[in-house]
Amino acid sequence: MSEAVTHSVTTPPGLLASLDPLLREWLPRQRWFAGKGRPVTGFSLVSATELLPPTAKLGLYHLLVRAHQPPAAAPQTAAPPDPHGHPGDTYQLLIGVREALPPRLAPALIGHLTEGPLAGRTVYEALYDTRPAELLLEALRTQDRIGGLRFEKDPDRDIRPGLVPRVSTAEQSNSSVVYGDTFILKLLRRVVPGVNPDLELPLALARQGCARVPAPVAWMLADAADGVPAQAAPAESEEPYPTAYPGETTYVLGVLQPFVQGATDGWELALRELAKGEDFQAEARALGRATAEVHTALARALPTVTLGHLQMRALVDGMIERLEAAAQAVPTLHPYVPGLLSAFEALGQLAEEGHTWTAQRVHGDLHLGQCLRSPSGEWSLIDFEGEPARPLAERRMPQPALRDVAGMLRSFDYAAHSAGTPAPQWAEACRAAYCSGYAEVGGRDPRHDPVLLRACETDKAIYEVVYEARHRPDWLPVPLAAVRRLALSSRST
Ligand SMILES: Nc1ncnc2c1ncn2[C@@H]1O[C@H](COP(=O)(O)OP(=O)(O)O)[C@@H](O)[C@H]1O
Ligand SMILES: O=P(O)(O)O[C@H]1O[C@H](CO)[C@@H](O[C@H]2O[C@H](CO)[C@@H](O)[C@H](O)[C@H]2O)[C@H](O)[C@H]1O
């Protein structure tokens, strides 16, 4: 590992080089590794912080590591240019070192060090271990500063000491630890310097008193001392942000939120109802209302803009570019390209005729799995990170709110395809109920804007094709079926 380190190097010299072969093998196998399908050619260190010195029992290191990889065929990775000339994404790792790994930590094994100052010891994913997870919560609780790591907290919120941690087993893009069923700490895995919407938006919503989103209690930051400039968003938040302002170079590494106890996510619930042959319309309607509540609060909290002809052209061009990149990455898409393009061109045409739309900050990757229902039936929306593969600046741009609506409509379709037998009527009924619920609170039915809705849904289905091809090839038929349907319906209108 090349040690292009800029701050807080308190690790034993040589440890990082000895980790290199272990990480090359382990990192690409992690669900949250974003560069799947491309070889890791090396690592450089962005920052290294010793959290516990290496005693016989335990040593603990916080690392930000840049994995060097050749660029993807399609421009899907959001990695900014590497200051040392290597393209690649930066990952947050919590590395534990022990003489021997107790059996309960066997699934957390990364490998055995064969050289360096700690040769003979075992390296593992320390988030699974009680003491390291406790250490993070304690640092947040006491607003600690360790090396380049800053732990901050909402001054009005208390964190009780001694909450017992357990790692969440949910399938996710990052990693989470639940503390005593009271809080959940999401540690971001692929990190990018700049204002992170996963902290920015829930904070803004909390200030609006929006009850649909668990309010951040504390957060973990690091200074991006590697010289990579933060990607400033075109429309800036007017809300105070913890310590980083756009243009600054700060990584958001983690966010602590209240844990919604006994919650079921919308995906699980929808599949359960489908399996029982039950409809999901009441819940879909409630989800539509919740989405509209969040959109209304976001439009109040953060700037909105009117999208005229030029801005819409840029939006449409973006959709077309993504389609072209997707067709390159997933050639199965080729026959559908003309039909899909016509969905985008129809939107461009409307804009040319003088139609305008409002854009605002949105969730950015809304689907059933991002909706949590409490045992009392209240819905919360989580995970405001946006589509993880998109550049941060793009994720923070005001968008038509129908982008989120389209994400949910796609999700009902996904659920209907995942049932034993496809259930198109179930999906149609959910989609209609969701739009009605949205109109009840938002004042406008998404179906009254069919051209924009179809373009957004098409854009989302194309994103899903690329996502599934990269992460879950078995699922590819689900968005491909939608692509086929959307390509045909766009051509016939
Ligand atoms: N506030 C919360 N209360 C209860 N469970 C939560 C909460 N936030 C997240 N979760 C659980 O953790 C999972 C992953 O969270 P999410 O923010 O979507 O992370 P990721 O970006 O890694 O996918 C969710 O699907 C849900 O099961
Ligand atoms: O990890 P995230 O939740 O941030 O989102 C990514 O993974 C999702 C899958 O886990 C993916 O969602 C797609 O599959 C869902 C079913 O598993 C379905 O409900 C969604 O509608 C569909 O988009 C999401 O696109 C991706 O960004």
TrEMBL record:
Pathway assigned in UniProt: Glycan biosynthesis; glycogen biosynthesis
Enzyme superclass (EC): transferase
Q: Where is the Maltokinase N-terminal cap domain?
A: 26-129
Please state which protein family the record places this protein in.
Belongs to the aminoglycoside phosphotransferase family.
The GO annotation for biological process reads: glycogen biosynthetic process
Organism (species):
Streptomyces echinoruber
Catalysed reactions, semicolon-separated: D-maltose + ATP = alpha-maltose 1-phosphate + ADP + H(+)
- GO MF annotation terms: ATP binding; kinase activity
Q: Protein name, please? A: Maltokinase
| Keywords noted in UniProt | ATP-binding, Carbohydrate metabolism, Glycogen biosynthesis, Glycogen metabolism, Kinase, Nucleotide-binding, Transferase
Which Enzyme Commission numbers does its entry carry? 2.7.1.175
The signal peptide here is none
- Binding partners and assembly: Monomer.
Q: Name one Pfam family in it.
A: Mak_N_cap
